[in-house]
């Protein structure tokens, strides 16, 4: 069944789960805004996806499925990175509440856009399946 | 990955900030309390309480298991580890008419600084509001996800 296995839907699904993960990471940053020595984290996904789609990374040729992946991984997965370098205030905490709130809003909007896009694609399938009735 | 993980993270922070608020209220309410407990026949004034927080993380076993399964794990929010007494010295106020004054007429008053408490209170309120916003964002995202394919 290849109908629902389109690359665009798979991509949307992966982006949605990355966005959900980012929501949790940002929530955690906001939750720890008053915790001494807490270091903020972020989710790295878009840059990796971008380089994957551009084909900028070198990919090793695999002649056997048991071979290691060289360069590219089989799919882009979201990654959590923690910023351990910077310091925002005297408690060695580096959560900037304004940045976090704007990231939260941005992530939410992006999520809504992707939901809308997924709905649109599914509607197209429905049209294709039912025809004009 | 649990669906409502974002809720748990934000609500742990709401709990922590509310407790912080309660402790601040207690500090302000007891700003003039001179009798907390009797030590060697002398009343000890109220000592300012301070809330200590730390990030709540999964148990080491759960962390290992999740990373072995290739899942990415986020933090689990925040928790209050302890409520401690502020060790700074008590304020000594000259007030010979006070029943708890010593022979020289000085009274030990609590080490509560109302200004400090007010600033802490604003900070706790703002953090609480930020977490409510994050919770609402998580909620609207999940509501939106339920609409896929409608």
UniProtKB/TrEMBL annotation, chain A:
Pfam families: Flg_bb_rod (PF00460). GO terms for cellular component: bacterial-type flagellum basal body, rod. It is found in: Bacterial flagellum basal body. One of its GO terms (biological process) is bacterial-type flagellum-dependent swarming motility. Keywords: Bacterial flagellum, Cell projection, Cilium, Flagellum. Its main location: other. Residues 13-39 form the Flagellar basal body rod protein N-terminal domain. Belongs to the flagella basal body rod proteins family. The basal body constitutes a major portion of the flagellar organelle and consists of a number of rings mounted on a central rod. Structural component of flagellum, the bacterial motility apparatus. Part of the rod structure of flagellar basal body. This is Flagellar basal body rod protein FlgB. It comes from Paenibacillus contaminans.
